[in-house]
Amino acid sequence: ALARRKKSDPRFAERFEIFLAGVELGNCFSELTDAKEQRERFEKDRALRRTQGKTNYPIDEDLLDALKEGIPEVSGIAVGVDRLVMLAADASSISDIIFFPGSELFEL
């Protein structure tokens, strides 16, 4: 996870999601900017994936190097434009509006 934990209660992350008509449109969070904590999370995630027999991806050392250099506290949102179009078109599935229909990757 890349979201920063709440300082007032580290059991929770500084994040929220935006939903419309039961469809997630946006994932929003404050970025974790602590390189040490991010490395620990990456390593924990890799260990879990290993025990689950899932593909284990390399740790993003470039990201960790950038975090070590120091970046300001930031936050952002990732908006699913395809999901907005789906709702505007009153479609029941992303595969109904996607440019490359028929792919199972686009099933909602």
Give a description of the structure.
A three-stranded antiparallel beta sheet has the order 1-2-3. It has one domain (15-106). It is of the alpha+beta class. Helix content is 31%, strand content 18%.
Total E-strand runs:
3
The H/E string reads EEHHEH
Quickly count the domains: 1
Q: Any low-confidence stretches, pLDDT <50, length ≥5?
A: none
- Determine the strand fraction and express it as a percent band: 15-25%
Give the integer mean of the pLDDT values.
89
The largest β sheet comes out as: 3 strands, antiparallel
Q: How many helices in DSSP terms?
A: 3
First CA to last CA: what distance?
Answer: 22 Å
Radius of gyration: 18 Å
Strand order of the largest sheet: 1-2-3
Instruction: Give the proportion of residues in helices.
Output: 25-40%
Please tell me what the overall shape is: extended
Oligomer class: single chain
Structural class of the secondary structure composition? Answer: alpha+beta
Structure keywords:
18% strand, alpha+beta, three-stranded antiparallel beta sheet, single chain, 3 helices, 108 residues
Structure summary:
With 108 residues, the chain is an alpha+beta fold. Helices cover 31% and strands 18% of the residues.
Task: Give the secondary structure arrangement, pairings included.
Elements lengths: L14 E6 L2 E8 L4 H17 L9 H9 L5 E5 L1 H8 L20
Antiparallel strand pairs: 1-2, 2-3
